[in-house]
Amino acid sequence: MKYVIIGNSTAGIGCVEGIRQIDKSGNIAIISDEPHHTYSRPLISYLVKGKVDAEQMKYRADSFYKDNDVTLLSGVRAVKINAGEKAVELSDGNSIAYDKLLVATGSRAFELPIAGNSFMTLDDARKLQSQLAPEKKVLIIGAGLIGLKCAEGILGRVASITVADLAPRVLASILDDGGAALVQKHFEERGVKFILSKSVSSTDGFDIVVIAAGVRPNTELLSGIAQIGKGIAINEKCETSNPDIYAAGDCTESIDVSSGQQKIMALLPNAYMQGECAGVNMAGGNKIFDKAIPMNAIGFMGLHIITAGNYTGEVYESNKNGTYKKLFYSDNKLNGYIFIGDIEKAGIYTSLIRDRTPLDSIDWALICEKPGLMAFTKEDRMLKLGGR
Question: Torsions phi, psi of 384, nearest 5?
Answer without folding.
Answer: -70, -25
